Amino acid sequence: MEVVILGGSRPIGKLAADAIEELLRRKPDAVLGLATGSSPLPVYEELAARHATGLDFSRASGFALDEYVGLPDGHPEQYRNVIRREFTDRINIDPANVHSPDGSAADIPAACDAYEAAIAAAGDVDLQLLGVGTDGHIGFNEPGSSFASRTRIKSLIEQTRKDNARFFTSLADVPHHVITQGLGTIMDARHVILIATGAQKAQAVRDFVEGPVAAICPASVLQFHPHATVLVDEAAASAL
Ligand code: GLP
Which stretch of DSSP H or E encloses residue 17? Predict the structure, then answer.
């Protein structure tokens, strides 16, 4: 695991965008793993700016990490809409090649299996962007998630619902259930870039970078990944 401490969100966004640009030049049909939350926003900002000056996404595809269960289609906080708004509508990726778990499927387990099959059929994720929750979750793999887990339905713990309540009118509106790629799914990505900024992430960063590899801290599984890059600002690195 490579940990890079940078001066703030802008240089973090640029460094992650450099890796994605290099990947796209080498492999124009690259498969990108897309994350929501505030952490990857500087990367999307930077990539949109680079697209405006010629970076081509026309042959790329994308797979979202996770999705809320039960939000009505078109809800602004449905992650499939967040990813469009924050990123894919701002570049020339084919919308048909941007995939999300189906959080309104009648048969959720079947939708999860179909999502896994779609990722495999695309040849697996080349570069996965990740944030980290204050409890060490990645995607929505809460503490206790199996390291072998695949895409499945999960319940959110109260802290995660509170952390995400800022995007909703009230805590009561935050869904209790989500679909998330599993830790095993995430570990199949060829390169993982995790971004964490701010003092509220310092403990989680310390736990997953320097602590034991343990299901209580899901991001710690990345210690076993052959190519994991952790980009942090000084506040998020302050407990290292
Ligand atoms: C949510 C998302 C995660 C994200 C986390 C942290 O729980 N499912 O993928 O990493 O929030 O979000 P933020 O980057 O806004 O701190």
Answer: helix 9-26
What is the predicted ipTM? 0.95
Q: Report pLDDT digits (tens) over 120-143.
A: 999 999 999 999 999 999 999 999
Quote the CA–CA distance of 240 and 238 in Å, as a whole number.
6
Pocket test for ligand 1, best of 82, 154, 164 (most atoms within 8 A of CB): 164
> pLDDT (tens digit, 9 = 90+) per residue, 179-200?
999 999 999 999 999 999 999 9
CATH number for 19-126+135-190+211-227: choose from 1.25.40.10, 3.40.50.1360, 3.10.20.310, 1.10.1670.10.
Answer: 3.40.50.1360
- Closest residue CA from atom 11 of ligand 1: 37
Per DSSP bridges, beta strands 177-180 and 152-155 are antiparallel
- Point out the ligand 1 atom lying closest to the alpha carbon of residue 156: 7
Which ligand 1 atom is the nearest neighbour of the CA of 65? Answer: 9
Which residues have a catalytic role annotated?
Answer: 66, 135, 137, 142
Distances (CA, A) of 201 to 51, 133, 136: 30, 7, 9
What residues are in contact with ligand 1 under a 6 Å CB criterion? 35-39, 65-66, 131-133, 139-140, 160, 164
| Cα–Cα dist 17/236, whole Å | 20
Q: Which of 34, 78, 137 should be mutated for ligand 1, with most atoms under 8 A from CB?
A: 137
The residue written with tokens 């809800």 in the block is 75
CA distance 72 to 70: 6
| 207: Cβ contacts below 8 Å, ≥ 6 apart | 136, 217, 219, 220
